[in-house]
Design goal:
2 copies of one chain form a homodimer. Chain A is α+β, with helices and mostly antiparallel strands. Chain A is 36% helix and 16% strand. In chain A, strands 1-2-4-3 form a 4-stranded antiparallel beta sheet, with helices on both faces. In chain A, helix 2 (25-36) packs antiparallel against helix 5. The longest helix of chain A is centred in the middle third of the chain and has 19 residues, at 105-123. Chain A is globular, with a radius of gyration of 18 Å. Chain A starts with a helix and ends in a 7-residue tail after the last strand. The interface between A and B is large, with 78 and 78 residues. Strand 5 (178-180) of chain A pairs parallel with strand 1 of chain B, so a sheet runs across the interface.
């Protein structure tokens, strides 16, 4: 069991190519369950997960995720499933806190729940990609999401092609990211 | 290996009581490594983790996390370590995207990295609690964080007392959180 989580973290990557193969309901369910159990500010759980898996609707939603400015999302129509995470109201105490402390807790919470989903997917052998760039208004219309609500993120879900390799993670070094006791680097 | 991640998710909880016992450097290092490998919008990694473990400084920071309005944080001085996650600039492409799409990606990213840290801590037998309520200005002063930067979250870290039990998770039901293809509930 030692370092199981770190291995999972190392195996998770953004998958931008998908097999034409459906996702089993029980695997999808476990991904959603991992998200459901995510922590959130004051346990507000300010999210609804809309699972788009009706093929024609997936194509329509996918079409709103790329364009001349966002060519990096042209892979999206390959995904058999797209999740839209709708931001819901926080509990009053979290709202008050967010206001007083000028910190939008709901987005932090959405990130946590989305990553729970993606890590469980990685454990299931599935691939995901979080998308922050999409045309929100038409997607809300397609999915019947009320105008005043926001979509925090989209996630694509599906099987990566056989042999889709885990790329070496390109990250800041430890010394660049971590400081002890004082923000400023010593020396 | 089946459902290892879900077990970890179920075991993670907010720990609000700590033993008077230091955290081993290599365990702390693995928690930071899990955070370092977290995904982020355009791989911006918009975070610096300031590890506060100098006892006097921990007490001073802790003192700024509770007060008459925030009595829920009075446990903080027990923690041997407090992490302050400073929000750093995103890459230009992510900044442009966040602006055009009116979505503050950096907070989503902070949530993901913080949760990686907390899940690794849970695997190490350590307890954490994310704090969104704190007096940001004095803490920035204590840690030498530039005025114009923001602290996204604090995390307490330490050993829970023996027998600190995992509480049953109180969450929305699956049917309340998940919809298929359309936001509105059927019927």
């Amino acid at each position: 069991m030692q370092n199981t989580f770190l291995s999972l973290v190392r195996s998770r990557q953004s998958v931008r190519k998908y097999e034409n193969r459906p996702v089993e309901a029980e695997k999808l369910q476990r991904c959603l369950e991992a998200a459901r159990l995510a922590p959130s500010a004051s346990n507000s759980q300010p999210w609804t997960f809309v699972v788009v898996n009706e093929p024609e609707l997936v194509k329509q939603v996918a079409r709103e995720t790329y364009g001349p400015l966002a060519t990096f999302n042209t892979f999206v129509p390959q995904a058999p499933v797209i999740i839209a995470i709708v931001i819901e109201k926080m509990k009053t105490i979290a709202q008050v806190g967010a206001y007083l402390k000028k910190r939008e807790f709901a987005l932090i919470d959405i990130g946590i729940a989305a990553e729970h989903f993606c890590l469980q997917a990685a454990e299931e052998g599935l691939g995901t990609c979080m998308l922050g760039w999409f045309n929100e208004k038409p997607i809300k219309k397609l999915l019947g999401i009320p105008d005043k609500k926001r979509i925090g993120l989209l996630i694509t879900l599906g099987y990566p092609p056989e042999g889709y390799t885990v790329s070496e993670k390109n990250r800041k070094g430890f010394d660049e990211m971590v400081r002890f006791n004082l923000y400023r680097k010593p020396g």
